[in-house]
Predict the structure.
Amino acid sequence: MTHSAKGKSVSHKATRESSASGLQTPDQIRLTIQRFVAEDDVDTANSVAEEGLAAFPESEGVLAISSLVACVREDWDRAVDLLTRLIDIQGDRASDFTRMLFERAKNCSGGTVSSIEQPSAGAASTGH
């Protein structure tokens, strides 16, 4: 989404916010992303999500919110990737909602995920 004059000030603000993401906790990043989505600034939310994923690639909270942002942006391949990672980390703890969202993203991506790529409930129960 591109916003006119408002977009420029938000982008400047986003640069400031996202550059600080290295100093934030995963929960702070998640809350920042949620705030940008609530303000209908999905592009900035996505930028913060990408930086959050770079800083905390194994954070369940950052993966979960980032996958939701990918779904809102209809970036289905990205959503499938992020949800696969989340389900792999959570294993049997993955919620029904996460699994449903994974199936939706997979279907919307137009492709099918092979059984090798598809996360399995028990594959990653390593205590993360």
Notes: Residues 5-19 form the longest helix (15 residues). The chain has one domain: 13-108.
